[in-house]
Each structure stands twice: as structure tokens, then as C-alpha cells.
Amino acid sequence: MSNVEAAPAPPRTSVLRRAWERVDEVAWLAALRVSLVSRVVFLGVAIAGTWFLSNQEGPLTIGVLDMWHRWDAVHFTDIATFGYFASETDPNAAAFFPLFPLLIDGLMAIGFDPRLAAMLITFVASIVAGAYLYKLADLEVGEGAGRRALLYLFLFPTAVFLVAPYSEALFLAGAIAAFYYARRASWYLVAIPAAVAMGARLAGLFVLVGLAVEFLRQRDFSLQRLAAGAVAGALGLLPLLLYGLFLSRAAGSFFEFKDAQYRGWSRMVVSPIESFLATWNTWGGSYPANWVFAWRVEILAALVGLFFTLWAFRERYWAYAAYMLVTLGVLMTSTWYFSIPRMLLSLFPIPILLAHYTRGNPERHQNVLLVTAPLATLGVIVFTQGKWFF
What parts of the chain have a pLDDT lower than 50? Predict the structure, then answer.
């Protein structure tokens, strides 16, 4: 018999930890790859579409960054460059929450062009959002769901806003990470991503509603858990409080962001019937055909959003369903339907539900991509041509 003692077997917790770290690495690499490849393809589509559709004689003069610097992107870079209340900035710029412009400003301080800075931020944020969606979908549906959900997010019909200098990617990075940690009952870790979502968009409030439902669903009201939940909620609300205080001093109203929405886009709370009729009746208004068609799609998007919300309730994803229902409720009680297709991109449970639908069925998976990928490509072309695309 040998006198050499056998090495002790690694403890079970170490094995699980190593397995989790491997999955974690897979999620981040997958998110990096899909974000990078989809971005390169969409950039190529934008360039080709601009050349093919141009009426200009000779070589194209518009730059690549200019193709993407459209609509709200201009507001974000103006805020970062001049501030909220400068003469060069839109007088209703307060409608746009401050985290995205602050990050742009930070990169500008080290020499970046504001347009490039904004697109770099969306790139990094989209990787973070994708990695956490990958992990969350695997957690909810099972192994393999994360990879499918990742594709459904980056080929979503309005996925152009994960590339364009908009705050959607930053918001999703915070919102998905916050829900991931909440679902794992790591409430102290919820705080920072929840604050990121709140700092990026007012829809961070809807995220907090969903997180509150998840906290109640877990039914752990121990002192430690209550303290963790309180910290998460307080830090999640902090960006709204700080922004409101800034607006109070600069514009005289804590709710200037809401007032700016009304002045700039006529958005106020109305009944859902009034909102629907106002949207439907744009058919007879003196609006550009681009806008009239977009309003038809707004109505379709609202129906799609309600369908997925009911689906979330059916699957008993109570926290996701609450987040989706509150979001759609606000959108469908506005003066008219506005940017609902873009907000569907922020309803990240949709890719998770689709991953549930396609589980074990490659044909369903292919069909989903056959529907979404062409629409995502269309969105890139329309947006970079400077036409209104939600």
C-alpha cells in the first residue's frame, strides 16, 4: 500500500462555482460576439442604403457618424456639449434623462467626438445588456435559452436603437441586470443597475415597480432582506431625486422633465380611449405619409405589447408582467401613441418569452428570426435615411 495520501476531492461548492464562472464567461463572450457582428452588419447596411438611395451626384459626402446622428441622438449630444439650458440646446431637452449625456460628456473630456462617444457607450451597454439577458433567460427557461434570447434582442424589429446614439442600450443594461440579481435574491446587487436604469430613462420607475413585485413574490421579510430591499429601492430612486433637484434649481420645477414632454411633444395623461382615437384619427390629418404609417405601426405595437404582457401573466412571471403592464399603461394613456415600437425593445421579457416558445423547436426559432431580422434591417435603413422611425 502506498504511503502517499490521495489529494482530497475539491469541495462541491468549488465545482459549482467554477461551472458558474464558465457559464458567466460564455454569456459575456456571446454578448460581445452578437453585439459586434450585428453592429458591423447594421453599419454596413446603413452605408449601403445611404449610397443606393442617395440622389447626390458623385461620391457620397455624408459621414458615417452623421448617418446615425438623427432625431433624439441630436438632443443627447447637444445636452452633453452645451448643457440642458444653453441657447444651442432644445428648450425641452429636460425630457431626456441625464446619465447618457453625462457619460458622453465624460468621453468628450478625453477627446472623443460626441457622436462617436455616444455610439461607443451604446456598444458597451449593449454587451452588458446582452450578457445579463443571456444569463437571465437561461435562469428562467433553461440552458440554451440565453443564446436564443440574445439573438431575439439584437435582431428585434427596433434593434437599430441598440446601435444608434440613443439611451435604450444603457437603460437595458441597468434594467436587465437589476432583474437578474433580483431573481437570484441578491438585493444589494440590484441597487446599482436599478440606478443606471433610472438615470437613463424615466422608465426606470417602471423597473422599480417590477422589482417591488419580485421582492413581494419571494416572501422573505426578514430584517436583513428588508434592509437589502430598502437599499435597492432607495438607490434606484436616487437618480430621479438628484435630477429633480437639479431641475428645481435650474428651471424652477422638480417635474420639469414632465413639463418638457408636454411642451415639446404634447404628451399628457388622457383616457386610453382618447389616446387610441387620437392616434387612429391621424389618418385624416395633414401629416407626412411617413408619420401616418408610423402611427398605424404604433397601434400594432401596442397590441403586440399587450399580447406579450398577457403571456407573461400566463407563465406567472409576475414581476416581468407588472413591469410590462405599467410601461404599456403609461404609453397607452398618453395624448397619442408615441414610440411604442421603440419601447417594446425595452420590454426585455419579450426575448425571454420567445426563447420559451422556441425551446426544443429549431423551426420556431428560425421562423422568429425570419420575421424579426428583415424588420430590423428595414429599421436601420429608415432611421439612417433621416425618416421618422419611432
Answer: 1-13, 19
Mean of pLDDT over the chain: 93
Domain membership flag for residue 341: no
Task: Say what the pLDDT of residue 12 is.
Answer: 47
Q: Which helix (H) or strand (E) holds 250?
A: helix 223-251
Answer for the pair 385, 53: CB distance below 8 angstroms, yes or no: yes
Please spell the DSSP secondary structure of 96-109, one letter per residue.
S-SHHHHHHHHHHT
Backbone angles phi, psi at 275, to 5 degrees: -65, -45
Say if 42 falls within a structural domain.
yes
What the block records as the C-alpha cell of 288 is 407626412
Which candidate, 258, 325, 212, places its Cα nearest to that of 92? 258
**In this structure, is residue 297 part of a structural domain?**
no
How many domains would you assign to the chain?
Answer: 1
In a domain? residue 160 = yes
Residue 14 confidence (pLDDT): 55
Identify the CA nearest to 161 among candidates 290, 9, 27, 343. 343
Residues sharing a CB contact under 8 Å with residue 295, sequence separation 6 or more, in sequence order: 279, 280, 282, 283, 287, 336, 337
SS3 110: coil
